[in-house]
Each structure stands twice: as C-alpha cells, then as structure tokens.
Amino acid sequence: MPFSLWMSLAAICAMGAMSPGPSLALVLRHTLGGGRAPGVAAAMSHALGVGLYALLTVWGLGALIVSFPSLFQAIIWGGAAYLAWLGTKALRAGKGSAMQATGTPTTRRQAAREGMLVALGNPKLILFFVALLSQFVTPEMSVAAKALIVLTAMIIDGGWYVLVALGLSHSRVLPWLQARAHWINRITGALLIALALRVALGPLD
Hints:
single chain; 79% helix; 0% strand; cell membrane; transmembrane helix; transmembrane; LeuE-type
C-alpha cells in the first residue's frame, strides 16, 4: 500500500475514533470511576473488538467485490448514507453527549469486559468499516496489506482511547473536553459528511 494511501486510511480511522459516542462515554466512565488502569483496560479491549470487526470486513470485502458486484455497490451506498447520517447527528449534537459521562466504581476486569461488549455490540461498526475500507480493499490485495489495514484501525482506536484515559488522570482535561464538545461534534460531523461524499464518488487512488 502506498504511504499516501495509508495516511488517508490512518486519518479516517482517527476521525472515527475521536468521534464522541458510546465508546468515548465508556472510557470516560471507567476512568472517572476507577482511575487510569480501568480506563486503559476499557480502551484496549474496545480496540480488540474494533480489530475483529475490521478483520471480518477486510476478508469479506474482496470476495464480495468479485462475486456480487451489484450487492457490493448497494452496500457501499448504504454505508455512505450511514456516514452522512452520523455526520448530521454530530452536527446537531449540543455541548452534552458523551462528554458528560460520570464515573461509577469499577475494576479493570469489568472495564475490559464492557469495552469489548460495547465494540462487538455495535453492529454499525460493520457499516462504518464497509464504507471506509471499500476505499482501500481490492480483490488482489495481499495478506500483508490487509493485515496492515486491520492493525491500523485497531492501533489508532486503542491509542486514542488510551490517551483519553491517561489524560483524564489530570483533573483539568475533562472540563476542557466538555467545554469544547460542541466544536468536536461540529468538526467530526463535517468530516463524516465529506467522507460520505467521497465514498459515493468511488475508491481512492
């Protein structure tokens, strides 16, 4: 995979990870309720769930492109519509949303379990990855290139939420995020809508 194309992939994965939502709320809640270790545990287990969905998507896309091109195109359009809906929802979100999560007593084991369940219990991740990875996956893509895509999605997701958990160890971070939640939502929403349009136009070169 060319480096420029990988950079596009990494940027889109980062945008998806940073989008406020249930995953962010989960990490916030466990970090505030148990400290740094449960927050990191939730982040890492969530990344494993994301990696599993990315793996399933990558391995299935190549076969789908070859065997059912019309169905593949329909799924792509559905994924683009989903991304546009996410973007619109983010633009309409106020200052609250996931940034207002409160802490409850928790442990590393509980945090890890819930982190995995939040990722695997969100089938919309499949739609997100289909729309995203359709820009990068081709039928002739090597195993190494597919592994790179999966690792990129997993490492960026885990890295972002680990940074959130570590940052929340300092009491000034959460109020700073809460005060700027509406701007995070607006920027994310605009980027998601732009991505939806790009998906509708066809694969990246």
